[in-house]
């Protein structure tokens, strides 16, 4: 399993192993969005976006969305399944899908720069940090801090479960790890926790994890 060079994820999309995809908007996003005090028409970064329908929900409430996704197939499916028009531009780093309100940089998130994005108001992370093994989570936290300007908001959902070694994705990320990764750059509030039983067909269930807690974290960039 090679998470680092991306083959793992490319294969998952090619084999349609996308059990992480949801057919309705995320509960924490829809509940807490209005409390974020964002400017009008905020620019939202969705790292590791897959073909998440949360991006559509965000445009419905007036956001301009920039996603980043490794798999070209995921990007194509996002636009075609939602009947959205796009144009394609190729650079040395990305294939850029540009739609009316949603653009996706198809390529490696770790190659994105502040110059590529412009000023981001809000970063929305569902199943992104927790998709990454520990060393990449450290790099990811640094990248997020680099891309987000002072005052911007970062809504992060983590999943926490009991395990003896690092299994995943999704990887178990605790509230103390969130503090460790982000405390140098952000003020952190834990908004809400919800427990759920892990699906019997999940790979982490096969390693003995039975129940997990989803925690919504709100981070504000210092
Ligand atoms: C668990 S999925 C979550 C997708 C989406 N956030 C959602 O909620 O459905 C993680 C996604 O991250 C993408 N990904 C993994 N590593 C990446 C990287 N380095 N750059 C960009 N995308 C990446 C994968 O292809 C996959 O679609």
TrEMBL record:
Recorded superkingdom: Bacteria
Catalytic activity: S-adenosyl-L-methionine + a thiopurine = S-adenosyl-L-homocysteine + a thiopurine S-methylether
InterPro entries: SAM-dependent_MTases_sf (IPR029063), Thiopur_S-MeTfrase_Se/Te_detox (IPR022474), Thiopurine_S-MeTrfase (IPR025835), TPMT (IPR008854)
GO BP term (any one): response to metal ion
Principal cellular location given in the protein's record: cytoplasm
Location(s), subcellular: Cytoplasm
Database matches in SUPFAM superfamilies: S-adenosyl-L-methionine-dependent methyltransferases (SSF53335)
Tagged with keyword S-adenosyl-L-methionine: yes
E.C. number(s) listed in UniProt: 2.1.1.67
GO cellular component, one term: cytoplasm
GO terms for MF: thiopurine S-methyltransferase activity
Family designation: Belongs to the class I-like SAM-binding methyltransferase superfamily. TPMT family.
Protein name: Thiopurine S-methyltransferase
Organism listed in the record: Aquella oligotrophica
Taxonomic classification: Bacteria, Pseudomonadati, Pseudomonadota, Betaproteobacteria, Neisseriales
Gene: tmpT
